[in-house]
Design brief:
This protein has about 290 residues and is α/β, with parallel strands linked by helices. It is built from eight helices and nine strands. The protein has helices at about 20-30, 40-55, 70-85, 110-135, 160-185, 220-230, 240-250, 255-265; strands at about 10-15, 35-40, 60-65, 90-95, 95-100, 145-150, 190-195, 235-240, 285. The strands form two sheets. It has a seven-stranded parallel β-sheet, with helices on both faces. A two-stranded antiparallel ribbon has the order 5-9. It is globular, with a radius of gyration of 18 Å. This is 3-oxoacyl-ACP reductase.
Length: about 290
């Protein structure tokens, strides 16, 4: 793929605010053919679409779609609308996600566990399944799928059990999909799995990064993800301590790793988490 998304159709979930909006702004600035915005917040989505339209060149279509990806049936319905009204995307950025910062026994099955697994794990699979056939049969035109996972999917952490499970599932599926596409001759479709530590989006307000792992800015993360996506990079972990921690977790005996993680503050990083004040306690949407 070229160094920009010029001429491509780009679909972004959780696009109304935060990092999702930053990805959309990047696509508009680079002259994408269409920037397809998915979000459940109709008012925020309309505001973002209006702002993007002011920046967009005449050849760029900004196409907002109100959809709650926790409703898995709505994904197929909205995907059909996208195909009909805009055309199949060349790039899909599975950005939306939620977290419940609780001990596992405080999770409710219906209000906590099910939506976390749906939004963080199942929805990216359903969305990719809708648009992959076109990507696979579109000749030599390169395509991209970007799955925003988390460092939490590589390491266990208190108060993140369900979130960590959902991101571990996303990582396992995402990298397996990458391998399947490469092995079966669909090398034009590149899958990038992203595993960041804490980002200062409001989603992790109050969280404390472990030693040598400061909170990253959304702008920094979006820039790194964007460049990795264009290059077709298979895995992006950031900062460097995420990869180091993963390696140590695999190499050390578990009791020794627990001691190291405790000393570095990994297991206390969510003790003071509050999340965004604008949403209900314990429930944050990553947009």
């Amino acid at each position: 793929m070229s160094r920009t998304v010029a001429g491509a159709r780009v679909l972004i979930t959780g696009a109304a605010r935060g990092m999702g909006r930053l990805y959309a702004e990047r696509a508009v600035a680079e002259g994408a053919k269409a920037v397809i915005l998915w979000d459940r917040d109709a008012a925020a989505l309309a505001s973002t679409a209006a702002a993007l339209n002011e920046r967009a060149e005449p050849g760029t279509l900004v196409a907002p779609f109100v959809v709650d990806i926790a409703d898995l049936g709505a994904i197929a319905q909205t995907a059909q609308r996208v195909r009909t009204e805009v055309g199949d995307p060349d790039i899909v950025i599975n950005n939306a996600g939620i977290i419940r910062g609780k001990f596992f026994w405080d999770h409710d099955n219906g209000d906590d566990i099910r939506p976390t697994m749906k939004i963080n794990s199942l929805a990216p699979m359903y969305i990719a399944r809708e648009f992959l056939p076109h990507m696979m049969t579109n000749g030599t035109r390169e395509a991209r799928i970007v799955n925003i996972a988390s460092a939490a999917g590589t390491l266990s952490n208190p108060r993140m059990s369900v979130y960590a499970a959902s991101k571990a599932a996303l990582i396992g599926w995402s990298d397996s999909l990458r391998l399947e596409l490469a092995q079966q001759g669909y090398g034009q479709v590149k899958v990038t799995t992203v595993c960041p530590s804490y980002i200062s989006t409001g989603m992790f307000d109050g969280a404390r990064g472990p030693l040598f792992t400061p909170l990253m800015t959304p702008e920094y993360v979006v820039d790194r993800v964007w460049r990795a996506m264009l290059a077709g990079r298979p895995l992006l972990m950031m900062p460097w301590t995420v990869g180091l921690a993963k390696a140590l977790r695999g190499a050390l005996p578990l009791p020794l790793w627990d001691g190291v993680a405790g000393a570095f503050g990994v297991y206390r990083s969510m003790d003071d988490w509050v999340g965004r004040e604008t949403l209900a306690p314990q429930e944050i949407q990553l947009d």
